[in-house]
Design brief:
CATH topology of chain B: ABC transporter involved in vitamin B12 uptake, BtuC
Helix content of chain B: over 70%
Distance between the termini of chain B: 29 Å
CATH superfamily of chain A: ABC transporter involved in vitamin B12 uptake, BtuC
Largest sheet of chain B: none
Number of strands of chain B: 0
Helix content of chain A: over 70%
CATH class of chain A: Mainly Alpha
Order of helices and strands of chain B: HHHHHHHHHHHHH
CATH topology of chain A: ABC transporter involved in vitamin B12 uptake, BtuC
Shape of chain B: globular
Number of strands of chain A: 0
CATH superfamily of chain B: ABC transporter involved in vitamin B12 uptake, BtuC
Number of helices of chain A: 13
Oligomer: heterodimer
Largest sheet of chain A: none
Radius of gyration of chain B: 21 Å
CATH architecture of chain B: Orthogonal Bundle
C-alpha cells in the first residue's frame, strides 16, 4: 500500500464525509423549516439558541427537531449495523434487517402493543429484547464448526419467517384500528419520537460505536481469509461473535426507538463503498445512514400525501429494491 | 428397519413409501373432516360420507367440512410439487414460494387489486395473486442469475428475501392509506382453506392441473440437469429451456395455491426434504410422491390449527410457518454437517 494512494483515499473519504454532512444539514434545515407554519432560517436559529415565540418554538422543539435527531441517530446505527454484518459475512445482501433481527423487534413490539397493551418505554424495552433474543438465537443456531456465514443467513431467514407469521396472526386478532397502529409502527417512522427515547439511543450509540471502531482492524484481517487472520494472531471466532453482537445491538437500539426502517441497514454500506470508489469505510457508512434517513424523512413528510405524509420507512424500503438491482448488476461487471 | 434392506429409489421401496403416504393421506383427510368445534369419530365420518341423510347432524357438519378438506389437499399438492420443482430447477435445496418472494409479489398485486381497482370479491383478486407471483419469480430469478456464479442458493435466497421486503414495503404504503384495504388484506395474508366454495375452485384447479402436468413432464429433463449443464446438453437437453419451463410450471402451481388459500409458506420447502432420505433425489420419483405428502402436511396443520387455541382458530398459513421453521432450522444444521463430512472424506 503506497503512501500516496492511502493519502488520496483519505482525502476522498474526507470529501465524501463533508458532502454527506452538508446534505444532512440542508435536509435537517428543510425539515425544521417546513410544516403547517413555515420557519425562516432566522426563526430556527432563534429557537435553537433558546429564544422564539410560543407556537413555532413548540413545533420546532417538540415535533421537528426530534424527528431530525431520530433520523440522524437511527440512520447511523442501522447503517453501521448493516456494514458490520455485510463485511463479516462478505455478502452485500446479508444485513440484519434481511436476516431476521428486525423481525424479532417487530414481533415483540406487536405482541406488546396488541396483547399486553404496552406503550412508551415499556414498548421500547420489549422491542429491544425481541431483537436481541433473535440475534442470540441466530448466533446459537449458526455456531459450531465449519462455515458460519451461510447458516447464519438461512437461520435468520427461517426465524424471521416464523416471527412474521406470528405478527400476521396477531394483526387478524384485533380490531382494524389497532391493526393500523401496529402496521404504522411496523413501517418505521421518525416522527412522534420522545426526547427521552432519543437520549437513551444516543447513550447506547456511544459505547457501541466505539466497539465497532475497535472491531474494524480485526474485521479487515478476517477479510484476508480465516487462515491468514489466524496466522496474524486474530481470534477468529471471538471477532465473529463480537461483530454479530455489536451489530445486532446497534440494530436493536435503533429499531426499538424508530421501528424497523426497512433497508437502511441493507443499503448504506454498499452506497458508501460506491461513494469511496470501491473501498468501504464504516465511518462514512454511518454518515451515509444519517443523511439517507433525514433526506428520506423530508421527502416522506412533505412530498407524499397530505397532512402528516407517509412514514419514512415506506420510502427507504422502496429505495432498497432499486439499490439491490443496481448492486447485483454491478457484480456482473466485476466478474 | 425393513426399509434399509432396499436401496433408495428402488421400485419396491417407492411403492412402500407411496402406500404409507396414501394411508397417512386418508387419515389426515379423515381427521380434517372429523375434528373441529364439533368432533366426530372416524366411523361417523365414514357413515356421513356414504349416506348424509341417515347420519343426522354429523352428516351436515361433515359435508360442510368437505370443501375445506378438498382445498387443503389441492393446496398441499400444488405447494409441495412447486417446491420440489424449484429446488431441482435452481439446484437450490432451499427454494420455496415463500422464500423466493412469490408470496410478496402476490400480496402486492392483491393489495393493488383492492386499493386501486376497488376489487373486493375473491375471484378477480386471485388472478392478481397469480400475476404478482409470476412477476416476482421472474424478477428474483433475473436478479440472482446476474453477477458472478449465476443463481447460487445464497444469492437466490437473499434476492428473494430482499425483493420480498421491498415489495412488502410498497404493500404497507398502500395499506397505510386506507383501513378498507387493511381489513381485507390482513385476513387474506394468513391463509385460509375455507375461503372458497367448490365452484370457485374450478378455474384455479385447472391452472393447478396444467402446472402439475408441466411439472411432471419436466421431471426427466431436470434429472439430466442434475448431472450438470454440460452433461445434460450433451444428452440432448436444453438447460435454459428446461429451467424456463420448470419456472413457468412453478408459477402456475404457486399461483393456483395462493389463489385458493392465500400465501402459505414452508410446505414447498419441507415436503421434498422429508421425502428425499426415503426415496432418493430422482425428480421422476420425488415429484409424484410430493402430490401425496403435501396434502398430508397441509391438512394436518389446518386440523391442528382448529383445536390448538380455542375458541378461535390459528390460520393454516401461520401453522405451517410455525411448524415449518423449526424443521427448516434442523435441515440447515443437518445439511451443513453432511457437507462437512463429505469435505472431510474428500
Amino acid at each position: 500500500m503506497s503512501g500516496a494512494r492511502s493519502a488520496g483515499r483519505a482525502r476522498r473519504a474526507g470529501l465524501a464525509t463533508l458532502a454527506l454532512l452538508v446534505l444532512t444539514l440542508l435536509a435537517a434545515l428543510a425539515r425544521l423549516a417546513l410544516g403547517s407554519r413555515i420557519a425562516t432560517p432566522a426563526d430556527i436559529v432563534e429557537v435553537l439558541t433558546g429564544g422564539g415565540r410560543g407556537a413555532l418554538r413548540f413545533m420546532i422543539l417538540e415535533d421537528r427537531l426530534p424527528a431530525v435527531v431520530a433520523g440522524v441517530l437511527s440512520g447511523a446505527a442501522l447503517a453501521l449495523a448493516g456494514g458490520l454484518f455485510q463485511r463479516l459475512l462478505r455478502n452485500p445482501l446479508a444485513s440484519p434487517d434481511v436476516i431476521g433481527v428486525g423481525y424479532g423487534a417487530s414481533a415483540a413490539t406487536v405482541v406488546g402493543l396488541l396483547v399486553f397493551g404496552l406503550s412508551g418505554p415499556a414498548l421500547t424495552a420489549a422491542s429491544l429484547l425481541g431483537a436481541l433474543a433473535v440475534a442470540g438465537a441466530i448466533l446459537a443456531m449458526a455456531s459450531g464448526r465449519g462455515e458460519m456465514g451461510t447458516r447464519l443467513v438461512l437461520s435468520g431467514i427461517a426465524i424471521g419467517a416464523a416471527l412474521a407469521a406470528v405478527v400476521n396472526l396477531l394483526l387478524t386478532r384485533t380490531d382494524v384500528r389497532s391493526a393500523a397502529d401496529a402496521l404504522r409502527w411496523l413501517t418505521g417512522s421518525v416522527s412522534d419520537t420522545a426526547w427521552g427515547a432519543l437520549g437513551w439511543l444516543a447513550a447506547a450509540l456511544v459505547p457501541l460505536g466505539l466497539a465497532a471502531a475497535g472491531l474494524t482492524r480485526p474485521l479487515r484481517l478476517l477479510e484476508l481469509g480465516d487462515d491468514v487472520a489466524r496466522a496474524l494472531g486474530t481470534r477468529v471466532t471471538a471477532v465473529r461473535v463480537g461483530v454479530v453482537a455489536v451489530g445486532a445491538a446497534l440494530c436493536a437500539a435503533a429499531v426499538a426507538v424508530v421501528g424497523p426502517l426497512s433497508f437502511v441497514a441493507f443499503m448504506c454500506h454498499p452506497l458508501a463503498t460506491r461513494l469511496l470508489g470501491g473501498r468501504g469505510n464504516l465511518a462514512v457508512t454511518a454518515v451515509t445512514g444519517s443523511a439517507l434517513v433525514v433526506v428520506a424523512d423530508v421527502a416522506a413528510t412533505h412530498l407524499f400525501g397530505i397532512g402528516n405524509g407517509v412514514p419514512v420507512g415506506v420510502l427507504t424500503g422502496a429505495l432498497g429494491a432499486v439499490v439491490l438491482l443496481v448492486l447485483l448488476s454491478k457484480e456482473r461487471g466485476r466478474a | 428397519m425393513s426399509l434399509g434392506a432396499r436401496p433408495r429409489g428402488s421400485a419396491g421401496r417407492v411403492t412402500l413409501v407411496a402406500a404409507a403416504l396414501l394411508v397417512l393421506l386418508a387419515l389426515a383427510a379423515g381427521a380434517s373432516l372429523a375434528v373441529g368445534a364439533r368432533a366426530y369419530s372416524l366411523e361417523q365420518v365414514w357413515r356421513a360420507l356414504l349416506d348424509p341423510t341417515a347420519a343426522g347432524d354429523a352428516g351436515v357438519v361433515v359435508r360442510s367440512r368437505l370443501p375445506r378438506t378438498l382445498n387443503g389437499a389441492l393446496v398441499g399438492a400444488a405447494l409441495a410439487l412447486c417446491g420440489a420443482l424449484m429446488q431441482a430447477a435452481t439446484r437450490n435445496p432451499l427454494a420455496d414460494a415463500g422464500l423466493l418472494g412469490l408470496n410478496a409479489g402476490s400480496a402486492l398485486a392483491v393489495v393493488t387489486g383492492i386499493g386501486v381497482f376497488g376489487l373486493g370479491a375473491v375471484s378477480p383478486l386471485s388472478w392478481f395473486a397469480l400475476a404478482g407471483a409470476a412477476v416476482a419469480a421472474i424478477l428474483v430469478h433475473a436478479i440472482a442469475a446476474r453477477g458472478a456464479g449465476g443463481a447460487t442458493p445464497l444469492k437466490l435466497a437473499l434476492a428473494g428475501a430482499a425483493l420480498g421486503a421491498g415489495l412488502a414495503s410498497v404493500t404497507q404504503a398502500v395499506l397505510l392509506r386506507g383501513q378498507d384495504e387493511l381489513e381485507a388484506f390482513r385476513f387474506w395474508q394468513v391463509g385460509s382453506l375455507a375461503a372458497r366454495e367448490p365452484g370457485q375452485v374450478l378455474v384455479p384447479g385447472l391452472v393447478l392441473a396444467l402446472g402439475a402436468g408441466l411439472a411432471l413432464f419436466c421431471s426427466p429433463a431436470l434429472d439430466r440437469l442434475a448431472l450438470g449443464d454440460d452433461v445434460a446438453a450433451s444428452l440432448g437437453t436444453h438447460p435454459a429451456r428446461v429451467r424456463g419451463l420448470a419456472l413457468a410450471a412453478a408459477v402456475l402451481l404457486a399461483g393456483a395455491a395462493t389463489t385458493i388459500a392465500g400465501p402459505i409458506a414452508f410446505v414447498g420447502l419441507v415436503v421434498p426434504h422429508a421425502l428425499r432420505p426415503l426415496v432418493g433425489n430422482r425428480q421422476g420419483v420425488l415429484a409424484p410422491l410430493t402430490l401425496l405428502a403435501g396434502p398430508v402436511l397441509v391438512l394436518a396443520a389446518d386440523t391442528i390449527g382448529r383445536v390448538v387455541a380455542p375458541p378461535g382458530e390459528v390460520p393454516v398459513g401461520v401453522m405451517t410457518a410455525l411448524a415449518g421453521a423449526p424443521v427448516f432450522l434442523v435441515l440447515i444444521r443437518l445439511t451443513g454437517r453432511g457437507a462437512r463430512r463429505r469435505e472431510a472424506l474428500a
